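Example 3.2
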Amino acid sequence: SSGNFDPMTQYELHYHLGIAHRNLIPVAGQMAAAEENYRKAIALPINEKLKLGAHLNLGALLKLKKDLAVALEQYEIAARIDPSQPMTYLNIGLIHRARGYLEPALRAYEYVITLAPEYGAAYQNLAVVLFKLGRLPESKQAFEKAIRLIAKTNPAESDRIRQGMKALGIDKLS
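Structure, written as tokens:
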């Protein structure tokens, strides 16, 4: 029980307990405890915008548990609360792709790019989906854009992506 605290204080307590349990996941029972605290935080009668972090963290936890349909629900709620967060839509795309729904994943990544045109991970994930859809010239363009953007902050990762392109044979497309 959270005692006699007001709903906002209760939210903060459950939200941070969820984070603490999430960080202890290798210890038995912590994933369930984290999920329970995020759900308690979300259930409190406070402004929905203030619950955004709990929805995002619960979505990430459920994705980790491979409970993709329920994780997607949390990310969709987060997207309704704040439609301007690129990371929310990136996660929506990742879940759709993991479930084999390539067209919705494609639309999610394209939306991420409209929100954050310099977000390299969005181009990288877009490139993978385009490749899986057989849209190879577009895939190559998206991979090249991802490499340029990611090289600015993580040259090793951009090299890894470049090697992946070569392994797929995409680098040879004109």
